[in-house]
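User: Sequence recovery, please. Input:
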């Protein structure tokens, strides 16, 4: 039950964080951009890309929280696994555009690790369509094979 609760709490926090980042990039892009880790503010039309980031973050947060609210933990685990691409990609973008290793690794890559950890916890604690914990069922099968 502790892993189940940890997976739920992490999912809620990650979903809310995505929503916060999206709102922040929509309404305070200069401030949000400084915290992202890329040192220079884009000029001209490039500043419009922060609206794209805002919409991406809002959608990701809404997807996470919706799947969790609907009790779809296994699909949420797959979504989290795929969403881990985003923070790792952000880390590479920070490094490729003159940002520091502290921001790239300490913010973005660390977030990617937390997203992967959350996906793993969701897989470990979710139930499949038969209503059984898949990880436990597989462990029981392996145990049975080894004793037969």
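Assistant: Recovered sequence (148 residues):
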């Amino acid at each position: 039950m502790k892993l189940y609760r940890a997976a739920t709490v992490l999912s809620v926090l990650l979903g809310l964080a995505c929503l916060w980042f999206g709102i922040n990039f929509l309404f305070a892009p200069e401030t949000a951009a400084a915290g992202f880790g890329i040192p220079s503010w884009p000029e001209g039309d490039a500043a419009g890309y922060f609206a794209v980031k805002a919409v991406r973050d809002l959608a990701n947060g809404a997807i996470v929280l919706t799947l969790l609210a609907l009790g779809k933990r296994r699909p949420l685990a797959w979504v989290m696994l795929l969403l881990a691409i985003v923070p790792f990609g952000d880390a590479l973008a920070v490094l490729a555009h003159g940002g520091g290793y502290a921001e790239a690794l300490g913010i973005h890559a660390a977030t990617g690790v937390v997203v992967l950890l959350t996906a793993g916890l969701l897989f470990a604690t979710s139930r499949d369509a038969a209503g059984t914990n898949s990880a436990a069922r597989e462990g029981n099968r392996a145990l049975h094979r080894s004793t037969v």
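The mean pLDDT is 84.
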